[in-house]
Write a structure and sequence with these properties.
heterodimer; A: alpha+beta; Alpha-Beta Plaits; two-stranded antiparallel sheet; 4 strands; about 20% helix; globular; B: alpha/beta; Rossmann fold; Ubiquitin-like (UB roll); de novo design (two linked rop proteins); 3 domains; five-stranded mixed beta sheet; four-stranded parallel beta sheet; 17 helices; 9 strands; about 10% strand
């Protein structure tokens, strides 16, 4: 599990640009208003490259890859 | 039955013989002549809190033993919060959260208006517990009487509390009372929620560990440290001890603020207040952020989280609204959702667009302009919106919507496809406290 990560979106920074869902549809879908719904499941090594691409494509830096056990507290 | 001899104070001494037996506990602190209890009268019963210095482990231990939980809505154990703040880095700040932006709740404003010294004592005792160096009392800027009550009480104390105690009038918006929004505003920003972490207990006002406690919680804390944790536990349930202030509104003859032992029967409370003679149609528990209970569920429900949880509800801030049998639950739900949608800080897409869509469609449903497809959309949106804001505003709206679609399922079908509102009335026989339809023009600073 050491390599697995979790995608998180900052809802305040995000403006629904939608690039992330286009680049990583396996884990990111859009709601009815075009904002990303991110699958909270850990991202295994096989998908990590796709996740990184989605993260770096966000023009507002609203998408992040965190360690999966990191709590919001 | 416990006798007075068994009741001990926080440090083991016998509780004072004037500890209130049974109910009410908080309400006697309220002056009977329509004004706030003066300091002189308050001090007859409540001695001056000690000057804050080094953190007081005995205070924290007593609050922990009392089992006191926050009364702002989250029901978090107060002792745990005190300890977390005490363990932070730097001298803590105590923030009294008197925002009470919830339109169906009035208990915090009542305490601030009529018993400000009890609340201030609670804040100072909490400050002593964690070793805080300042106290900020945040009050809804539109709550004139509450602001006056606190201002008057602070003037009466004349700065004799041993640390700076400041009154702050916060922007009168619902989400301004959310913890991160309060900290954001106290630090010079707009009163909008920010993204946690760090949580305020770790780094809040001036980057110091910050204890943010609800007004009623601090009033209870003052009594816990005055009369002892065992006294506190004489009322309420083992899991949720003590009494609670409930703001009761809607189809009752005597709406108002009632003090109940936690776990009291909802039907008894409604009965005491002169509930509708033909029985309630439904009851909204937890205020605008709460859940509807159908008539049958409500008649057997207890006002504590452990029981309400079984019905997907919670006591929240203690606001209870009774819907008359002939009133329309969808009308009330549509009205509340429209208000909640208007309370968005405009920061998170799913909240801005989602709540507006949900409110619009629920109103259309009530007006008879919606079809089965709209009902499907409402259900899908509920799933899409939940958990996707920086604060809990969208989650609260979704909880209300889901409970309405379940409890008023029969009404929903009667309203579909041009059916219109069978009740023919848009509101309670006796209305819930009115809320401004939208507060979009109000400032955030």
């Amino acid at each position: 599990m050491a390599l697995s990560r979790q995608l998180r979106v900052d809802p305040i920074a995000c403006d629904g640009n939608g690039l992330c869902a286009e680049l990583f549809p396996e884990r990111i879908t859009l709601d009815d208003w075009g904002y990303p719904i991110v699958d909270p499941a850990p991202i295994g090594p096989n998908l990590l490259a796709h996740a990184r691409r989605a993260v770096s494509a966000c023009p507002l830096l609203a998408l992040r890859l965190d360690a999966p056990d990191r709590t919001r507290a | 039955m416990r006798t007075l001899a068994d009741v001990t104070g926080p440090t083991g001494q016998a509780a004072s013989p004037d500890a209130p037996l049974g109910l009410p506990r908080l309400l006697p602190a309220i002056g009977g002549d329509g004004g706030a209890t003066p300091l002189e009268r308050h001090r007859l019963r409540y001695p001056e809190p000690p000057r804050p210095g080094r953190p007081r482990e005995d205070f924290i231990a007593a609050v922990e033993r009392s089992g006191l939980r926050g009364r702002g809505g989250a029901s978090f154990p107060t002792g745990t919060k005190l300890r977390a703040v005490r363990d932070g880095r730097g001298a803590p700040v105590v923030v009294v959260n008197g925002s009470e932006g919830e339109p169906s709740s009035g208990k915090d404003k009542l305490l601030l208006t009529m018993a400000p010294h009890l609340v201030l004592d609670g804040a100072l005792l909490a400050a002593a517990a964690v070793g805080a160096s300042q106290v900020v009392v945040c009050v809804d800027g539109a709550a004139t009487a509450a602001l006056e009550g606190v201002g008057w009480a602070l003037a009466e104390r004349g700065g004799s509390d041993g640390l700076p105690v400041r009154l702050a009038a916060i922007p009168p918006r619902y989400v301004a009372g959310e913890e991160s929004a309060l900290v954001h505003w106290l630090n010079g920003g707009p009163a909008t929620p920010t993204r946690v972490p760090p949580r305020p207990f770790r780094r809040g006002v001036d980057r110091r560990p910050t204890l943010i406690d609800n007004v009623e919680t601090l009033a209870h804390l003052a009594q816990v440290l005055r009369f002892g944790p065992d006294w506190f536990r004489q009322l309420g349930t083992a899991e949720e001890p003590g009494s609670a202030l409930v703001t009761l509104s809607g189809a009752v003859e005597r709406p108002g603020i009632y003090e109940i032992p936690i776990g009291a029967s909802l039907a008894d409370l409604a009965g005491r207040a002169g509930g509708p003679p033909d029985g309630a149609g439904a009851v909204l528990v937890g205020g605008y952020f709460g859940s509807w209970l159908g008539a049958d569920t409500a008649s057997g429900a207890s006002l504590c989280n452990s029981d309400l949880r079984r019905h997907g509800a919670s006591l929240g801030c203690g606001a209870v609204m009774v819907l008359g049998r002939r009133a329309c639950g969808l009308a009330e739900t549509a009205r509340i959702l429209a208000w909640l949608a208007g309370q968005t800080a405009g920061q998170c897409g799913p909240c801005v667009h989602g709540l507006a869509a949900v409110a619009r469609t629920t109103a259309a449903l009530h007006d008879g302009h919606a079809g089965a497809g709209d009902l499907d959309r409402l259900r899908r949106w509920a799933g899409q919106i939940e958990g996707r804001g920086a604060c809990r505003l969208p989650d609260g709206a979704v909880r209300l919507l889901r409970s309405a679609l379940e409890v008023f399922a029969g009404d929903v079908w009667r309203h579909l496809d041009g059916g219109g509102c069978p009740a023919g009335v848009r509101s309670f026989p006796q209305r819930a406290p009115a809320a401004a339809p939208t507060q979009g023009g109000l400032p955030w600073r």
